[in-house]
């Protein structure tokens, strides 16, 4: 198993622990906001586990079949960082509901999952969606790292209709009855494990609490990248009877999908080059050069890079050609020509590397930079501003003081049958902090709630 598989296995193990802890929190929680947040986190963890295991299985299958391909040289385009923000989902209520304030007072809890490969992030949850709202707006800023040019970003909308009773079981007796009812129908062995709730795997796999339904989904690709907010199609899901969910979605959603290819912010290649002077072809000037952001920037020394602006910038765009230098005008070995045509005219620069190895390095670097631009297309036309991602805040219901401390757990019973009697307030709070605090670091990405 290579380092990538080990990293994937580490993520699987972490999500399993999170799922187990979340399931215990769900059993112990009584406050509606706690229950909803725990159910949402449980769904998110299960989704990640499935994605990680599917990818791990795909890699193992490819390894067995010998389909793993090694790419020599710089044949793959660079990856990029994606930023998703300003997510807004319009609602389409009936006139009688929205304007005349008639009809039943339905309320919903809604959140989104965003997926690129095995990177899966959830938005904050809007838990009071009713007929007074014309749209659902998420303030989250979500970043995806190392995304390939042919990515597909999936957006899934999940919804739960709110009811008066949110708790999994309001007393230990009710919970015990629920477990006993299940235990009697699954056989003695499984029933014994289930009734005790001591096995972490059983707890983690239980379907507890409010059920969130997938009500709509959409997908975004490179062609959808834009520096401004745009509108995209939202595909509504149907149930077994062919009916869409009662949440009145309009069939569209808005968001800003920005991309920042690494070639715009990270040097493709750096080193010394000799530039032929225009006024005297026999003279050459030595520069420290960096190929980045559609140009070759030149300084006197590498120490000047972070201090001053480049002394010279040579465009390297989609209209640039790299070729061998004309031997009649350049007698220096290891030389090459950069030719760029734009609206201002034709610009030619002759440069030379110190050695054959250095020439090959620069030649590959230029080809790589041009390949990046060709495949990332309009995303390379400008350096898009990625909104800053800050650490996700704790849910609103624990901002002032922890409800996991203020809210008592299931009432203790003298017979000691309480399933969560061993979970004190301090332990519950510690579990919450552990679940939320480690997630971003282990998953290797950034999710934020502005």
Automatic annotation (TrEMBL):
<protein>
    <submittedName>
        <fullName>Rhotekin-like isoform X8</fullName>
    </submittedName>
</protein>
<dbReference type="InterPro" id="IPR011993">
    <property type="entry name" value="PH-like_dom_sf"/>
</dbReference>
<dbReference type="GO" id="GO:0000915">
    <property type="term" value="P:actomyosin contractile ring assembly"/>
</dbReference>
<dbReference type="InterPro" id="IPR012966">
    <property type="entry name" value="AHD"/>
</dbReference>
<dbReference type="GO" id="GO:0000281">
    <property type="term" value="P:mitotic cytokinesis"/>
</dbReference>
<dbReference type="Pfam" id="PF08174">
    <property type="entry name" value="Anillin"/>
</dbReference>
<dbReference type="Pfam" id="PF00169">
    <property type="entry name" value="PH"/>
</dbReference>
<feature type="domain" description="PH">
    <location>
        <begin position="266"/>
        <end position="371"/>
    </location>
</feature>
<dbReference type="GO" id="GO:0031106">
    <property type="term" value="P:septin ring organization"/>
</dbReference>
<dbReference type="InterPro" id="IPR051364">
    <property type="entry name" value="Cytokinesis/Rho-signaling"/>
</dbReference>
<dbReference type="GO" id="GO:0005826">
    <property type="term" value="C:actomyosin contractile ring"/>
</dbReference>
<dbReference type="InterPro" id="IPR001849">
    <property type="entry name" value="PH_domain"/>
</dbReference>
